[in-house]
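Section 3.1: Structural characterization of target chains.
Under the original work plan, the team committed to producing a structural model for every single-chain target entering the pipeline before any wet-lab resources were allocated. The record below documents one such target. The sequence was received from the expression subgroup and is listed exactly as submitted; it comprises 115 residues.
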Amino acid sequence: MTDKIHKKVIDIFAKHKKNSPTCKEDKICTSEEGYYYVCLQKDLNGKHFDEKKLVKNANECYYIVKIMIKEGLQTFINSYKIPGNKILEFLKIYINGEKEGQIIEIDKFYPEEWA
């Protein structure tokens, strides 16, 4: 049963890749770098996105970033709680190799979602 579902998912991606030379809303596209993405022009209510609201929501959320660190034969995971407005600054430290560790997971949440 799962093989049939897996084949259907693959077929959907193959169909979109072949039939969409230009990217439009709700179609699976490929960037110049080879990454897949979907272009969304409206929210779930059919309204166009509001740039100010999107930025405000992005800055009000938090990210849990898990960093894997190796010390000798030991492997550790440090979980950082990063405010949305600081996430790029934080990731840059690890991407540029200024701090040792490998980013292994990023989760987004809002303060009201805390248990």
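The first helix runs from residue 2 to 19.
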